[in-house]
Write a structure and sequence with these properties.
The protein has about 300 residues and is α/β, with parallel strands linked by helices. It has helices at about 1-10, 30-45, 60-70, 90-95, 125-140, 155-170, 185-200, 215-225, 245-250, 265-280, 300-305, and strands at about 20-25, 50-55, 75-80, 100-105, 115-120, 145-150, 175-180, 210, 235-240, 255-260, 285-290, 295. The protein binds beta-D-galactofuranose (GZL). Beta-D-galactofuranose binds next to helix 2 and strand 9. Keywords: Signal.
């Protein structure tokens, strides 16, 4: 509130954002690529000059980009923070420069007064939706689960792990037997799944894979096929993002469930920014997007067609 007052007072008359710096994590997944595309489209539709920086998944590159945006005197900064910690000093520098910061799709541990708002899904809930699907799917059957976690220390990796465990807590027939990060990438998912298969009787002892995003699941599906097993049947596959290719996999019987994450975090972010710049309206600290479950019963090819041109 203090920052908002100061920033708004500094603006004096009503203003609108002309230039926004966007510190993007990278392009580790199809979902991330779509988020970038949608952000550029939303900026263009609003006549905003978007300055884009791809950090190749390195926090130091994001911090350097934010400092550069502050030096350029942009009107606002969007950040998709690769991990949850280590942002205090650079966010304080932006606050001192009276430049509002909005977080996209991941959260930070910093004090909420250091950012205007955050737009994202309830990542714990996404994990719960994925876990509940598996509980419903396996019933009382014994089910040994392997887990491909997202980028270590990122809020989605932390929260999606928590949510899934919340959902399976009451099902003592379901057990997570291996868990390792695949860094949200297809190659990471494939490599780690290969090691899981070797460690678990060639896959005979694995009932299901829970992947924190579809890209890791798609890499794992390749590994399962190469091991001579049937993904989606011998090993159930549940993941998150709802990217077009997971729907192709579903239509081939290779994947069983995904939880949707909209790539349009920028629309609500730009809306909140415009209201703030116009008259100091303070947005909610967290603008939540929803998390819908999709399975092969939900017209996967139709969902593929709807998403295939959105920049994934
Ligand atoms: C989640 C987002 C995650 C996506 C992944 O909000 O941060 O990052 O689920 C991406 O595909 O790597």
């Amino acid at each position: 509130a203090l920052m908002a007052g100061v920033a708004f007072a500094a603006l004096g008359t009503a203003a609108s954002a002309q230039t926004v710096g966007f510190s993007q994590i990278g392009s580790e997944s199809g979902w991330r690529a779509a988020e970038t595309t949608v952000t550029q489209q939303e900026a263009e539709a609003r006549g905003i000059d978007l300055r884009f920086s791809d950090a190749q998944q390195r926090q130091e590159n994001q911090i350097a980009a934010i400092r550069s945006f502050v030096a350029q005197g942009v009107d606002a900064i969007f950040v998709a923070p690769v991990v949850a910690t280590g942002w205090d000093s650079v966010l304080e520098e932006a606050a001192e420069a009276e430049i509002p910061v909005i977080l996209l799709d991941r959260m930070v541990d910093s004090d909420p007064s250091l950012y205007l708002t955050a737009v994202g899904s309830d990542l714990v809930h996404e994990g719960e939706v994925a876990g509940q699907w598996l509980v419903d799917e396996v019933g009382g059957e014994e089910c040994r689960v392997v887990e491909l976690q997202g980028t270590t220390g990122s809020s989605p990796a932390i929260d999606r792990a928590t949510g899934f465990r919340n959902a399976i807590e009451g099902a003592d027939n379901i057990e997570i037997v291996r868990s390792q990060t695949g860094d949200f990438t297809r190659s990471g998912g494939k490599e780690v799944m290969e090691s899981f298969l070797q460690a678990e009787g060639g896959g005979a002892d694995i009932c299901a894979l829970y992947a924190h995003n579809d890209d890791m699941a798609l890499g794992a599906i390749q590994a399962i096929n190469e091991a001579g097993l049937n993904p989606g049947e011998d090993i159930l596959i549940v993941s998150i993002d709802a990217v077009p290719d997971i729907f192709l996999a579903m239509s081939e019987g290779d994947a069983n469930a995904t939880v949707e994450l909209t790539p349009n975090m920028a629309g609500p972010a730009f809306d909140a920014l415009e209201a703030y710049m116009a008259d100091g309206t303070m947005p909610e600290k967290f603008i939540q997007t929803d998390s819908q479950l999709y399975t092969p019963e939900d017209d996967p090819m139709g969902e593929y067609e709807r998403r295939k041109d959105l920049g994934y």
